[in-house]
Write a structure and sequence with these properties.
Elements (H helix, E strand, L loop, with lengths): L19 H17 L2 E8 L3 H8 L6 E5 L2 H8 L12 H4 L6 E6 L3 H10 L1 E4 L11 E3 L2 E2 L8 H6 L4 E4 L2 E4 L3 E4 L7 H10 L4 E12 L2 E4 L7 H4 L2
Antiparallel strand pairs: 1-3, 1-10, 2-3, 4-10, 5-9, 6-8, 7-8, 10-11
Helix pairs in contact: 1-3
């Protein structure tokens, strides 16, 4: 009787940051989920927010499981090639795990999964170091959204301000952030004070695998790249 691919030993010695036992727990967890549920989705994410992601995951708590972490460890769990994949064709999904990515293993109908992912989008304040998606500039004059107590703090953030009869006044036009440039700590603080949310937390489906088929969602991906390897 041929030996099951699921029983093959896995080498995790190339990954160093966390212990071997921890990685084996992740690998085993993914493999158990693949055996339990009918479909595997690879998704990418932008501007991850842990609390918001936890809320999104709750929609799958009865019929699915999410995995985030090292792409290499997740690839090992699924199999990196046709020769070591845990189920026929699943290595194609494994090859889509790169960058900011994760796995969803679920029994939820395909149409429902697609609807939940496509509909989800949540704005949030940008963090230091993230790239500004637009230019924000304040014009010279009174800043009535700020109380007089804020004037010293605003000056510490580099803003040319003063108090004029108890009102915070901007002495010259001031660029808070420029599109395409990383946000400084001061810029991110000012944007938060202004209530301007430039970051959008999004989850994008990349591909879906099931025992009967494999589907790519993202335009520009070439299925021929993963057909054989």
């Amino acid at each position: 009787m041929p030996k099951s691919k699921r029983d093959r030993p896995v080498t995790l010695s190339k990954t160093k940051k966390k212990g071997r036992a921890h990685k084996e727990v992740i690998v085993n967890g993914i493999r158990e989920a693949v055996e339990k549920y009918s479909s595997v989705y690879v998704f990418s994410f932008e501007n991850m927010r842990n609390i918001k992601f936890k809320e999104f995951r709750q929609q799958f708590r009865q019929n699915g499981k999410f995995f985030l972490g090292s792409n290499k460890v997740m690839q090992v769990a699924l199999g990196r090639s046709a020769s070591d994949e845990m189920s026929p064709g699943i290595f194609k999904a494994s090859k889509m795990l790169h960058g900011d990515a994760g796995l969803l293993v679920t029994d939820m109908p395909k149409e429902e999964v697609e609807s939940l992912f496509n509909a989800y989008e949540d704005s949030d304040f940008s963090r230091t170091g993230s790239t500004a998606v637009e230019t924000v500039e304040l014009k010279e004059g009174p800043l009535e959204q700020f109380t007089h107590e804020m004037e010293p703090f605003l000056r510490k953030q580099g803003m040319p301000v003063r108090l004029n009869k108890g009102t915070v006044e901007l002495l010259s036009d001031f660029v808070v952030c420029e599109e395409g440039k990383p946000l400084s700590p001061e810029s991110s603080r000012i944007l938060r004070l202004l209530g301007i949310k430039l970051a959008t937390f999004k989850l994008n489906l990349v591909c879906r695998w099931s025992p009967s088929d494999f589907e790519l969602y993202r335009e520009g991906l070439d299925l021929s790249d993963v057909e054989t390897s």
